[in-house]
């Protein structure tokens, strides 16, 4: 009987800890919950949300992002719908030797 009670308490407290960590993910603005406001990516490329405000500057945004690693950018996809994403890759400069 005591064993069953301890198992039930372990499940309850374990699930409570799981819910606490998911609440923490949302309490910090969901920064770790996937793509959001701004650029999501790394040194190989990334995505950012398309808005009419970035229509004239999305190539420059990608270029500035890839310049952090000394790379060139190439825009691979632009969906001109509000809420869709602009995707790009960061490529090495052809004259660079690693």
Account of the 3D structure:
The protein is of the alpha+beta class and 98 residues long. It has two domains: 1-33; 34-98, no CATH class. 36% of the residues lie in helices and 22% in strands. The chain is built from two helices and four strands. The protein has helices at residues 2-27, 58-66; strands spanning 40-42, 45-49, 72-78, 85-91. It has a four-stranded antiparallel sheet with strand order 1-2-4-3, with helices on one face. The longest helix has 26 residues, at 2-27. The chain is elongated. It starts with a helix and ends in a 7-residue tail after the last strand. Mean pLDDT is 77; it is low at 18-33.
Integer count of domains:
2
The total beta strand count reads 4
- What is the number of helices? 2
Globally, the shape reads elongated
Uncertain ranges: 18-33
Q: Provide the β-strand percentage band.
A: 15-25%
Helix percentage range: 25-40%
> Termini distance?
66 Å
Strand order in space, largest sheet = 1-2-4-3
* Rg, alpha carbons: 22 Å
Q: Tell me about the biggest sheet?
A: 4 strands, antiparallel
